[in-house]
Design brief:
With about 325 residues, the protein is α/β, with parallel strands linked by helices. It has 13 helices and twelve strands.
Protein backbone atom coordinates (compact mmCIF):
# COMPACT_ATOMS: atom_id res chain seq x y z
CA UNK A 1 0.00 0.00 0.00
CA UNK A 2 1.00 3.61 -0.53
CA UNK A 3 0.22 6.91 1.20
CA UNK A 4 0.91 10.24 -0.48
CA UNK A 5 1.21 13.40 1.62
CA UNK A 6 0.89 16.84 0.02
CA UNK A 7 1.78 19.50 1.00
CA UNK A 8 4.77 17.90 2.70
CA UNK A 9 4.96 17.66 6.49
CA UNK A 10 8.01 18.33 8.65
CA UNK A 11 10.45 15.54 9.41
CA UNK A 12 9.37 15.06 13.03
CA UNK A 13 5.81 14.30 11.95
CA UNK A 14 6.92 12.25 8.98
CA UNK A 15 8.90 9.91 11.19
CA UNK A 16 5.84 9.29 13.39
CA UNK A 17 3.69 8.66 10.30
CA UNK A 18 6.15 6.17 8.84
CA UNK A 19 6.40 4.36 12.16
CA UNK A 20 2.62 3.86 12.28
CA UNK A 21 2.32 3.10 8.54
CA UNK A 22 4.62 0.11 8.90
CA UNK A 23 5.09 -1.59 5.53
CA UNK A 24 2.92 0.99 3.74
CA UNK A 25 5.05 3.24 1.53
CA UNK A 26 4.86 6.92 2.53
CA UNK A 27 5.62 9.66 -0.03
CA UNK A 28 6.10 13.15 1.40
CA UNK A 29 5.48 15.16 -1.78
CA UNK A 30 7.02 18.60 -1.51
CA UNK A 31 5.75 19.90 -4.85
CA UNK A 32 2.60 19.44 -6.97
CA UNK A 33 4.39 17.60 -9.78
CA UNK A 34 5.65 14.93 -7.38
CA UNK A 35 2.21 14.54 -5.84
CA UNK A 36 0.65 14.26 -9.30
CA UNK A 37 3.06 11.52 -10.29
CA UNK A 38 2.91 9.56 -7.03
CA UNK A 39 -0.86 9.61 -6.57
CA UNK A 40 -1.35 7.43 -9.68
CA UNK A 41 -0.92 4.21 -7.67
CA UNK A 42 -1.62 5.58 -4.18
CA UNK A 43 -4.15 3.92 -1.88
CA UNK A 44 -4.35 6.84 0.55
CA UNK A 45 -3.82 10.59 0.53
CA UNK A 46 -3.34 13.18 3.27
CA UNK A 47 -3.43 16.91 2.63
CA UNK A 48 -5.13 19.13 0.09
CA UNK A 49 -6.66 17.01 -2.66
CA UNK A 50 -7.44 18.89 -5.88
CA UNK A 51 -9.55 17.85 -8.87
CA UNK A 52 -6.37 17.42 -10.90
CA UNK A 53 -4.78 15.13 -8.32
CA UNK A 54 -7.93 13.03 -8.04
CA UNK A 55 -8.14 12.67 -11.82
CA UNK A 56 -4.69 11.01 -11.79
CA UNK A 57 -5.53 8.60 -8.93
CA UNK A 58 -6.28 5.09 -10.14
CA UNK A 59 -6.78 3.19 -6.88
CA UNK A 60 -7.41 5.75 -4.16
CA UNK A 61 -9.41 4.32 -1.25
CA UNK A 62 -9.00 6.88 1.52
CA UNK A 63 -8.50 10.65 1.74
CA UNK A 64 -7.69 12.40 5.01
CA UNK A 65 -8.40 16.15 5.04
CA UNK A 66 -6.16 18.32 7.17
CA UNK A 67 -9.09 20.40 8.40
CA UNK A 68 -12.35 19.84 10.26
CA UNK A 69 -14.43 21.96 7.88
CA UNK A 70 -15.07 20.64 4.39
CA UNK A 71 -16.93 23.39 2.55
CA UNK A 72 -13.74 24.46 0.76
CA UNK A 73 -12.38 20.92 0.43
CA UNK A 74 -15.14 19.05 -1.36
CA UNK A 75 -15.74 19.14 -5.10
CA UNK A 76 -18.15 17.10 -7.26
CA UNK A 77 -15.67 14.45 -8.41
CA UNK A 78 -14.59 13.78 -4.83
CA UNK A 79 -18.19 13.53 -3.63
CA UNK A 80 -18.92 10.95 -6.34
CA UNK A 81 -15.68 9.01 -5.82
CA UNK A 82 -16.02 5.75 -3.83
CA UNK A 83 -13.08 6.57 -1.52
CA UNK A 84 -13.50 7.19 2.19
CA UNK A 85 -13.10 10.79 3.28
CA UNK A 86 -12.22 11.72 6.86
CA UNK A 87 -11.65 15.07 8.50
CA UNK A 88 -10.13 16.50 11.68
CA UNK A 89 -13.27 16.89 13.76
CA UNK A 90 -13.14 16.41 17.50
CA UNK A 91 -9.92 18.34 18.03
CA UNK A 92 -11.55 21.55 19.17
CA UNK A 93 -14.63 20.57 21.19
CA UNK A 94 -13.47 21.53 24.68
CA UNK A 95 -11.48 24.55 23.46
CA UNK A 96 -14.40 26.05 21.52
CA UNK A 97 -16.83 25.25 24.33
CA UNK A 98 -14.59 27.26 26.66
CA UNK A 99 -14.74 30.16 24.20
CA UNK A 100 -18.53 29.99 24.11
CA UNK A 101 -18.83 30.07 27.89
CA UNK A 102 -16.45 33.02 27.85
CA UNK A 103 -18.94 34.90 25.70
CA UNK A 104 -21.81 33.82 27.94
CA UNK A 105 -20.09 34.99 31.13
CA UNK A 106 -19.08 38.30 29.56
CA UNK A 107 -22.65 39.09 28.59
CA UNK A 108 -24.20 37.77 31.82
CA UNK A 109 -21.89 39.84 34.01
CA UNK A 110 -21.62 42.94 31.75
CA UNK A 111 -17.85 42.56 31.32
CA UNK A 112 -17.70 44.48 28.00
CA UNK A 113 -19.17 47.55 29.71
CA UNK A 114 -16.91 47.24 32.74
CA UNK A 115 -13.77 46.81 30.62
CA UNK A 116 -14.61 49.98 28.70
CA UNK A 117 -15.26 51.84 31.94
CA UNK A 118 -11.96 50.64 33.41
CA UNK A 119 -10.09 52.28 30.54
CA UNK A 120 -11.51 55.62 31.70
CA UNK A 121 -11.34 55.06 35.46
CA UNK A 122 -15.12 54.89 35.85
CA UNK A 123 -16.64 53.03 38.82
CA UNK A 124 -20.27 52.58 37.82
CA UNK A 125 -22.31 49.38 38.25
CA UNK A 126 -24.65 48.66 35.35
CA UNK A 127 -28.05 49.78 36.60
CA UNK A 128 -26.31 52.00 39.14
CA UNK A 129 -27.92 55.27 38.08
CA UNK A 130 -31.41 53.89 38.65
CA UNK A 131 -30.27 52.18 41.83
CA UNK A 132 -29.36 55.54 43.44
CA UNK A 133 -32.98 56.61 43.34
CA UNK A 134 -34.90 53.36 43.81
CA UNK A 135 -32.58 51.08 45.78
CA UNK A 136 -34.27 49.64 48.82
CA UNK A 137 -32.51 47.06 50.93
CA UNK A 138 -34.39 44.14 52.32
CA UNK A 139 -35.63 40.59 51.74
CA UNK A 140 -37.34 40.00 48.42
CA UNK A 141 -36.39 43.42 47.01
CA UNK A 142 -34.84 43.42 43.54
CA UNK A 143 -32.87 46.54 42.68
CA UNK A 144 -31.73 47.81 39.29
CA UNK A 145 -28.16 46.54 39.65
CA UNK A 146 -29.42 43.03 40.37
CA UNK A 147 -31.74 43.17 37.38
CA UNK A 148 -28.90 44.24 35.10
CA UNK A 149 -26.87 41.08 35.80
CA UNK A 150 -27.90 37.58 34.70
CA UNK A 151 -28.09 34.60 37.03
CA UNK A 152 -26.98 31.75 34.77
CA UNK A 153 -28.92 29.07 36.63
CA UNK A 154 -32.08 30.95 35.64
CA UNK A 155 -31.10 31.02 31.96
CA UNK A 156 -31.63 28.64 29.05
CA UNK A 157 -28.87 27.99 26.54
CA UNK A 158 -29.85 26.55 23.17
CA UNK A 159 -27.39 25.00 20.73
CA UNK A 160 -27.93 24.74 16.99
CA UNK A 161 -25.87 21.74 15.86
CA UNK A 162 -25.36 19.11 18.57
CA UNK A 163 -22.22 17.51 17.22
CA UNK A 164 -19.06 17.10 19.28
CA UNK A 165 -18.62 20.84 19.79
CA UNK A 166 -22.28 21.54 20.45
CA UNK A 167 -22.53 18.65 22.90
CA UNK A 168 -19.53 19.95 24.85
CA UNK A 169 -21.04 23.44 24.97
CA UNK A 170 -24.19 21.93 26.47
CA UNK A 171 -22.18 20.00 29.08
CA UNK A 172 -20.29 23.10 30.17
CA UNK A 173 -23.45 25.20 30.30
CA UNK A 174 -25.10 22.54 32.46
CA UNK A 175 -22.14 22.78 34.86
CA UNK A 176 -23.19 26.40 35.43
CA UNK A 177 -26.69 25.22 36.29
CA UNK A 178 -28.25 26.39 33.05
CA UNK A 179 -31.17 24.69 31.35
CA UNK A 180 -29.87 23.33 28.04
CA UNK A 181 -31.64 22.40 24.80
CA UNK A 182 -30.53 21.74 21.24
CA UNK A 183 -31.60 21.12 17.66
CA UNK A 184 -29.81 18.83 15.23
CA UNK A 185 -30.70 16.92 12.04
CA UNK A 186 -29.17 13.68 13.34
CA UNK A 187 -28.46 13.71 17.09
CA UNK A 188 -31.36 13.08 19.45
CA UNK A 189 -29.46 13.12 22.75
CA UNK A 190 -26.17 14.07 24.39
CA UNK A 191 -24.36 11.12 26.01
CA UNK A 192 -24.24 11.48 29.78
CA UNK A 193 -26.42 14.58 29.85
CA UNK A 194 -30.12 15.09 30.54
CA UNK A 195 -30.87 17.39 27.63
CA UNK A 196 -33.67 17.77 25.10
CA UNK A 197 -32.42 17.60 21.51
CA UNK A 198 -35.04 18.29 18.87
CA UNK A 199 -35.11 18.08 15.09
CA UNK A 200 -34.21 21.18 13.11
CA UNK A 201 -37.86 22.01 12.43
CA UNK A 202 -38.10 22.90 16.12
CA UNK A 203 -35.57 25.73 15.74
CA UNK A 204 -38.26 28.42 16.26
CA UNK A 205 -39.15 26.81 19.59
CA UNK A 206 -35.51 26.79 20.68
CA UNK A 207 -35.12 30.43 19.66
CA UNK A 208 -38.17 31.51 21.66
CA UNK A 209 -37.01 29.73 24.81
CA UNK A 210 -33.27 30.49 24.83
CA UNK A 211 -31.48 33.32 26.59
CA UNK A 212 -28.29 32.39 24.74
CA UNK A 213 -28.42 30.85 21.25
CA UNK A 214 -25.19 29.14 20.22
CA UNK A 215 -24.53 28.21 16.59
CA UNK A 216 -22.21 25.19 16.52
CA UNK A 217 -23.30 23.78 13.16
CA UNK A 218 -21.05 23.18 10.13
CA UNK A 219 -21.46 24.96 6.82
CA UNK A 220 -23.65 22.75 4.64
CA UNK A 221 -26.18 23.51 1.90
CA UNK A 222 -28.89 23.26 4.58
CA UNK A 223 -27.25 25.67 7.05
CA UNK A 224 -26.19 28.37 4.55
CA UNK A 225 -27.83 31.60 5.75
CA UNK A 226 -30.00 29.64 8.16
CA UNK A 227 -30.22 32.77 10.32
CA UNK A 228 -32.07 35.67 8.69
CA UNK A 229 -34.34 38.34 10.15
CA UNK A 230 -37.13 35.79 10.60
CA UNK A 231 -34.99 33.79 13.04
CA UNK A 232 -33.97 36.88 15.02
CA UNK A 233 -37.64 37.87 15.28
CA UNK A 234 -38.28 34.52 17.01
CA UNK A 235 -35.64 35.24 19.66
CA UNK A 236 -36.21 37.00 22.97
CA UNK A 237 -35.35 40.70 22.93
CA UNK A 238 -33.12 39.93 25.92
CA UNK A 239 -31.30 37.02 24.21
CA UNK A 240 -27.78 36.86 22.84
CA UNK A 241 -26.57 35.11 19.67
CA UNK A 242 -23.18 33.35 19.80
CA UNK A 243 -21.68 32.04 16.56
CA UNK A 244 -18.64 29.77 16.66
CA UNK A 245 -19.86 27.61 13.76
CA UNK A 246 -19.48 29.15 10.33
CA UNK A 247 -19.94 32.78 9.36
CA UNK A 248 -22.14 32.04 6.35
CA UNK A 249 -24.79 30.47 8.59
CA UNK A 250 -25.75 34.01 9.69
CA UNK A 251 -26.66 36.65 7.12
CA UNK A 252 -24.41 39.54 8.11
CA UNK A 253 -26.73 42.31 6.94
CA UNK A 254 -29.71 40.78 8.71
CA UNK A 255 -27.72 40.30 11.94
CA UNK A 256 -26.64 43.94 11.81
CA UNK A 257 -30.23 45.06 11.24
CA UNK A 258 -31.49 42.85 14.08
CA UNK A 259 -29.00 44.41 16.50
CA UNK A 260 -29.75 47.94 15.32
CA UNK A 261 -33.49 47.34 15.74
CA UNK A 262 -33.07 45.75 19.17
CA UNK A 263 -34.50 42.41 18.10
CA UNK A 264 -31.80 40.73 20.22
CA UNK A 265 -29.71 41.97 23.14
CA UNK A 266 -26.31 41.35 21.58
CA UNK A 267 -23.97 38.94 19.81
CA UNK A 268 -20.71 37.12 20.41
CA UNK A 269 -19.04 36.41 17.06
CA UNK A 270 -15.93 34.38 16.40
CA UNK A 271 -16.91 33.94 12.75
CA UNK A 272 -18.55 36.29 10.27
CA UNK A 273 -19.97 35.95 6.79
CA UNK A 274 -17.18 38.27 5.62
CA UNK A 275 -13.72 37.64 7.08
CA UNK A 276 -11.88 39.69 8.05
CA UNK A 277 -14.82 41.85 9.01
CA UNK A 278 -14.19 45.26 7.33
CA UNK A 279 -12.84 47.82 9.79
CA UNK A 280 -15.65 50.25 8.98
CA UNK A 281 -18.44 47.74 9.62
CA UNK A 282 -20.97 48.96 12.21
CA UNK A 283 -20.66 45.77 14.28
CA UNK A 284 -17.24 46.93 15.49
CA UNK A 285 -18.79 49.96 17.16
CA UNK A 286 -21.71 48.23 18.88
CA UNK A 287 -21.25 48.01 22.66
CA UNK A 288 -23.39 44.85 22.82
CA UNK A 289 -21.23 42.91 20.36
CA UNK A 290 -18.02 40.97 21.13
CA UNK A 291 -15.91 40.02 18.11
CA UNK A 292 -12.98 37.61 18.19
CA UNK A 293 -10.95 36.94 15.00
CA UNK A 294 -11.84 33.27 14.31
CA UNK A 295 -9.73 32.01 17.21
CA UNK A 296 -12.25 29.92 19.19
CA UNK A 297 -10.37 26.75 18.28
CA UNK A 298 -6.91 28.09 19.10
CA UNK A 299 -5.02 26.08 21.72
CA UNK A 300 -1.50 24.72 22.28
CA UNK A 301 -3.13 21.24 22.34
CA UNK A 302 -4.39 21.33 18.75
CA UNK A 303 -1.16 20.37 16.98
CA UNK A 304 -0.69 17.19 18.99
CA UNK A 305 -4.35 16.25 18.62
CA UNK A 306 -4.14 16.81 14.87
CA UNK A 307 -1.24 14.40 14.59
CA UNK A 308 -2.84 11.78 16.84
CA UNK A 309 -6.03 11.81 14.75
CA UNK A 310 -4.00 11.28 11.59
CA UNK A 311 -1.95 8.47 13.16
CA UNK A 312 -5.03 6.68 14.49
CA UNK A 313 -6.72 6.82 11.10
CA UNK A 314 -3.56 5.47 9.43
CA UNK A 315 -3.49 2.59 11.93
CA UNK A 316 -7.09 1.80 11.09
CA UNK A 317 -6.57 2.00 7.33
CA UNK A 318 -3.61 -0.36 7.47
CA UNK A 319 -5.81 -3.08 9.00
CA UNK A 320 -8.79 -2.34 6.77
CA UNK A 321 -10.96 -0.41 9.23
CA UNK A 322 -12.71 2.88 8.38
CA UNK A 323 -11.31 6.08 9.92
CA UNK A 324 -12.69 7.31 13.22
CA UNK A 325 -13.62 10.65 11.64
CA UNK A 326 -15.35 9.31 8.52
CA UNK A 327 -17.67 11.88 6.92
CA UNK A 328 -20.69 11.78 4.67
CA UNK A 329 -19.41 13.58 1.59
CA UNK A 330 -22.88 14.42 0.36
CA UNK A 331 -23.85 16.05 3.65
CA UNK A 332 -20.48 17.84 4.11
CA UNK A 333 -19.95 16.45 7.63
Amino acid sequence: MKLVIHPAVEESRLSRIREVAGSMQVINAADPSTALREIADADAFFGKLTPELLSHANQLRWVQAATASLEHYLFPALVDHPCWLSNMRGLFSDVIADHVLGFVLCFARNFPRYIRQQQHGIWEPVGGEAARTDFVSGPGVINAIDQAHRHLADCTLGVVGVGQIGAEVLRRARAFGMRVIGVDPIASAVPGLDCEVWKLDQLPVLLKQSDFVVIAAPHTPETFKLFRLAQFEHMKRSAYLINIGRGVIVDLADLTAALQRGLIAGAGLDVCETEPLPSDHPLWRMENVIITPHVAGASPRISERHLETLLENIRRFVVGDPPTTLVDKRRWF
